[in-house]
TrEMBL record:
<dbReference type="GO" id="GO:0000287">
    <property type="term" value="F:magnesium ion binding"/>
</dbReference>
<keyword id="KW-0460">Magnesium</keyword>
<comment type="similarity">
    <text>Belongs to the HAD-like hydrolase superfamily. MasA/MtnC family.</text>
</comment>
<keyword id="KW-0486">Methionine biosynthesis</keyword>
<comment type="function">
    <text>Bifunctional enzyme that catalyzes the enolization of 2,3-diketo-5-methylthiopentyl-1-phosphate (DK-MTP-1-P) into the intermediate 2-hydroxy-3-keto-5-methylthiopentenyl-1-phosphate (HK-MTPenyl-1-P), which is then dephosphorylated to form the acireductone 1,2-dihydroxy-3-keto-5-methylthiopentene (DHK-MTPene).</text>
</comment>
<dbReference type="InterPro" id="IPR006439">
    <property type="entry name" value="HAD-SF_hydro_IA"/>
</dbReference>
<comment type="pathway">
    <text>Amino-acid biosynthesis; L-methionine biosynthesis via salvage pathway; L-methionine from S-methyl-5-thio-alpha-D-ribose 1-phosphate: step 3/6.</text>
</comment>
<dbReference type="InterPro" id="IPR023214">
    <property type="entry name" value="HAD_sf"/>
</dbReference>
<keyword id="KW-0028">Amino-acid biosynthesis</keyword>
<keyword id="KW-0378">Hydrolase</keyword>
<comment type="pathway">
    <text>Amino-acid biosynthesis; L-methionine biosynthesis via salvage pathway; L-methionine from S-methyl-5-thio-alpha-D-ribose 1-phosphate: step 4/6.</text>
</comment>
<keyword id="KW-0479">Metal-binding</keyword>
<dbReference type="InterPro" id="IPR036412">
    <property type="entry name" value="HAD-like_sf"/>
</dbReference>
<dbReference type="GO" id="GO:0043716">
    <property type="term" value="F:2-hydroxy-3-keto-5-methylthiopentenyl-1-phosphate phosphatase activity"/>
</dbReference>
<dbReference type="GO" id="GO:0043874">
    <property type="term" value="F:acireductone synthase activity"/>
</dbReference>
<dbReference type="GO" id="GO:0043715">
    <property type="term" value="F:2,3-diketo-5-methylthiopentyl-1-phosphate enolase activity"/>
</dbReference>
<comment type="subunit">
    <text>Monomer.</text>
</comment>
Amino acid sequence: MSAVSHTPRVALLDIEGTTAPVSFVHQVLFPYARTHLPHLLAEQAHDPVVQAELEEIARLAPGVPPMEQLTRWMDADAKVGPLKALQGIVWGQGYQRGELVASLYPDVVPTLEAWSKAGLTLAVYSSGSQPAQKLIFGHTQQGDVTPLFSKFFDLRVGGKKEAESYRNILRETGWQAEDVLFLSDVTAELDAAAQAGLQVCQIVRPEDATVAGKHHPVAATLPEAAHLFGLPDTESAA
Ligand SMILES: CSCCC(=O)C(=O)COP(=O)(O)O
Ligand SMILES: [Mg+2]
């Protein structure tokens, strides 16, 4: 049974819990950043990009030593611009050294290839910084899959639990709200996107023990979401 009367033209995808396993983000990426951020701050504090983020930390948390503030944010899994930007820089060094390779759920690349082939526009909206998004999709076990995506949105459009952020994405792209399908594991993000008029689907991955909400269509994988929304899945595109 289809969940919609209007077939989406754009798929806007979350990362953690939707395209990349929560375990990869929390057990590989976050610990890697926690280990390497002190060295980045010690060695590259005068790099203009790092310096700009340190200034932003000082503005948000006056008087708190920057590494202490970053640790507080990491402990709280806070989605804050300077933390996300600096994590992205550290991850970039990790991918470059071959110490990080990104894991995606196995259904992601085949399904996105099928959607792209069918003419869908694909885009990412994650709390991870735009450079970090390009890094994760640029260094997957399946190679560089960034060419699948037309747009990468991060916290610069606003937080993912605020409807205004999705309106900002619509304004920036000219997409019609009803043409866009937002896929995420987090119900508060789906509530905000739905409030802005987007179609939404919760991705509930059994391996991540995601809890299904009551108000939005639910799928365990991207091919399952494809069936709900009248999109091609891997098999029908082959
Ligand atoms: C770019 S991968 C790391 C994602 C990240 O830093 C994060 O906080 C998870 O955010 P998402 O919006 O993808 O759930
Ligand atoms: Mg998520």
